[in-house]
Amino acid sequence: MASVATDPDVQQAIESAALKSDRFRLEREADWIRLEEIVTKMEKGKTRRLSDEDVLALPTLYRTLLSSLSIARESSLDAGLIDYLEGLALRSYFMVYGTQTSFGRWLKGFFGGGWSQAIREIKLDIWIALFVMIAGTLIGYALVAGDSDWYYALVPGNFAEVRVPGASEEALRGTLFGAEKQDGLGVFAAYLFSNNAQVAILAFALGFAFGIPSILLLIHNMALLGAMLWVFAQRGLTLEFVGWLSIHGTTELFAILLAGAAGIHVGRSIAFPGPKSHLTAASDAGKRAALVMAGVVIMLICAGLLEGFARQLINSTALRYAVGGAMLTFWLVYFFVFGRNRAENRL
Amino acid sequence: MSTTATDPWIRRSTNPKLDRVMVSPEGVPLNVTVATAGARAGALTLDILIILGLILGVTLLGLLVLWGFEAAFGAGVSLETSGPLNVVFVLWIIAVFLFRNAYFLYFELGERAATWGKRAVGIRVAARDGGRLTAEAVIARNIIRDIELFLPLVFITSGEAEGTMSDFTAWAGFLWVLMFLLFPLFNKDRLRCGDLIAGTWVIQNVKRNLAGVVAPSADANGAAAGQAAVRYEFSDADLSVYGEFELQTLESVLRTGTDEALETVTKSICAKIGWEPGTGDERIFLEAYYTALRAKLESGMRFGKRRKDKYSADI
Fold first, then answer.
1. Interface of A with B in 18-57 (CB under 8 A)
2. What's the whole-model pTM score?
């Protein structure tokens, strides 16, 4: 490099150095120290304050350092020097190959096709999760239809105050069109989101154990739904109940479906890694599923808002179907149609 | 990519079991050291304390805001249904959710890929394959944290508080936590489940300063050293008693040793090569011997011959 020191003192030191390896070191020292200064600044989060020359010099300095390290390892026995080079090489490696996308740019890529593509990649798992969820609902319905005591086993206490087998049509209608919670809607929405998000995260995270707990969790949650459906169906309120549910449920259940599918995807990759090693398969699937999960959290925010506000404020079944249907269409189009051409062009 | 190659430049750290080699995209192998389980636990404890502190802070702030409203608009106003209580409560729920889930994400996506706790103990997250640490990987490793840590914590504390927990569920929860907490101890790379899924690992930060040249050359060191170079001439036999390991021990004595240490080392070297140790110029003697030994060993290296320590064959 050009920085073979022009400083006469350094020049003298290089000439008088007794060992070839010390001469090697003295000739390149200035570059290493410059690189170290740049890296230290970047580590402190002051990347923006670097001068243009420094930013441009970083990759070159980094590669020069790597070659210095390789030479030093084979020709120098100065342990202090090699330790320094090893440490600096690792530090600058993390800066050069660090998380270079800014959060904003990542978000743009995520909404502009990354999310949809990740979802399309786990299509098979989505079908499995959908099948499991439908089966769960049917199981819940059938169990309670056979013996209504099952209801109390499936539905937790706080839901089952009014909505119990044998409740009057009046009381049930009240829960669907009531104004009970209109007062604290904001709190309710925030609470629902936080709660649902934890359930979805759980459904995904449990996929780690070969996906089986994810499947059980989906079945359990949907059996609860099936049981409630039976209670309302007994009083001829099926249509109204589904409307009440669909306004947020199309978004929320879709999100839980995706979370469960992501969990199953990870579990399936660990159990059947194909030609890859178990570890590689797990981490590939994990990264894909993580993208889906980031989206699930966003969907759940929407669902929480719909559930907390729209459901309590819209009291007409037809309108509820309209909102729920519109949301479902939106998600389906966004996931399975949007960005498809672009992804294929890239291939 | 983690191999345990036995090349001579592999670093000798305090716990060689944790040393790994990561190949950079340029094809240069880099030495990394996996963070110890103790460091991980320490970092996690710090992070949990910080999160609890943040939640406490937000709670106090919320109460303060409510108190302010009470003082400004009269008692009872904040309890009204559409009053500030709701707004504050919504913000509180969102803040707690963010602290719990986004704290790790935010910091591990930053330049240093480490939370405050990790920074304090000097460790960081990295991609296991030597590539970029992607946002997806960080998200994946932190979502898994939820079942590893927060879920059982919430489960146990809420169960205890409501008194609804039977002995069986308490023990089941305890075992669950234990299984995940101890998971890193049962694999050699100290991966927790989240690391496994995300393809990441946690490694030690290295920060070393460039130390000076060990034995400054004759001219640079002035007249005294100049004489030394003339005074000490080592024969090939004198230099063939030691290998690289002894050379590096000598280096560390020269860098950091006290006068007594220099004296002891001088005596043992002189005994080995059959010299009569002088007094008063130990440093000059050792520097001269170091330089001569290093010159010999390095010239051997140039021909691909290395001598590990005094027990290996002379080059």
1. 18-22, 25-26, 29, 32-33, 36, 42-43, 45, 47
2. 0.76
